[in-house]
Amino acid sequence: MECEGKTGIHAIIVPLPGQGHINPAMQLAKKLASKGIAITFVLTQSWHNTITDAHSSTGVNAFSHARNLGLEIELVAIPDCVPGEFERGNKLYKFSQSLDNMESHVEELIKNLNQSNPTPVSCIVSDTFLGWAVPLAKKLRLLSVSFWTQNVLVFSITYHSYLAERQAGSVIHIPGVTPLQPADLPLWLKLSPDDVVVRVISRCFQTVREADWVVANSFLGLEGHVVEALWEKMRVYCVGPLLPSAYLDLSEPRDSVVGTSYRVEMDCTQFLDDKPPKSVIYVSFSSVLPMSTSQIEEIAMGIKESDYSFIWVLRHPGKECAEVSSMLPDGFLNETKQRGLVVPWCSQLKVLSHPSVGGFFSHCGWNSTLESISVGLPMLGFPLGAEQFANCKLIADDWKIGLRLRSGDDTDKVIGRDEIAEKVRRLMEGEEMRRAAERLRDVVKMEVRKGGTSDSNLERVVDELKTKLIENSI
Hints:
The protein folds into 2 domains: 10-245 and 449-473, Glycogen Phosphorylase B (Rossmann fold, 3-Layer(aba) Sandwich), CATH 3.40.50; 263-443, 3-Layer(aba) Sandwich (Rossmann fold).
């Protein structure tokens, strides 16, 4: 990913403070820098610390590899002003309300950068869920790019929320979207309009209309029909999947990837190397949204009774360092030690791309979904909240690359071990689902290559950014 030449453009990138938003934003930063844009990447102090600490043992920082290639990227911190990652799940309302605290710190940073940097800031690239960012750009007479980290379907559903409200209780029709059941809607469209989270998101979708560009972590080969239907109202450019290039281009060595995980990782390679191809199911759910102990026990027994080998990433909900054995059935770890591995954290893409892994049992977060698609794995969907029910609907019903184990109608129901075991077997043995997933994987490789639609869309945004800056200077 070498730099194509300097543009004289300086953009600051401000992700929402959460790993699922920071990771794709870091990939976007590298891609924009490769187009000749100088990047200042902004994190809260605690996130800056955890990401830099994670790389201290290697002697590099999160952008060292990119900088060695000539890309102009700086990592900077603003004061902590939002709850941390492990507090976020239990303090979602406080977290949502606190996001506005970032604005004054970012404004001060921009002023300081303009005084100290030979190239003044000309653009703010911000997470769509930071509703203050586009108005701040307008206030400071900067250009604005709103970065949507999820799929365009969820963007369009939220953009057309008035249609969902009008069709409440029945099948919902959104332009470019296959018919939706109420259970498929993102969580924020099921809550009261007075709910804090709903108010925050409503504001975000008002301010995003004022952005100069919207870029999304998706690709046209997956969602072209949704983008086309939305285009007249809102121009959204798909520039994804925003994943480390080594996992999208198999000719690049994997060791060149610099990850962003800030937790101690378990190396699962030896365990996987000893297993036959497509024989292991990888199990991982949200690091933010908790799951009941009774449901964890049923999942454990379902996996055990499926007779498939597994790697399960399991952490105590809301606690960074806590023993998880108490959450599992008595004897589970000992009885499954020959064919199972329970770890607190691992390199997910590294595991998913291993030949021994044959399926992904997931909460259907968008980053996990893209990772599974990019390596051609079918998915067993167990959504927990947020937009995950919509993602699961796409996986099971639209793309037919997986199975649904839980819907938005039964969020309080504990799914039993027998159903889990049966669905695990169907997933691992479902050749049609596997072929469909592998076809999507091949589409991804076409989209992200040099000259592919995702690369071309990013190039178009950069060209339009250059044009606007020239127009504004005349």
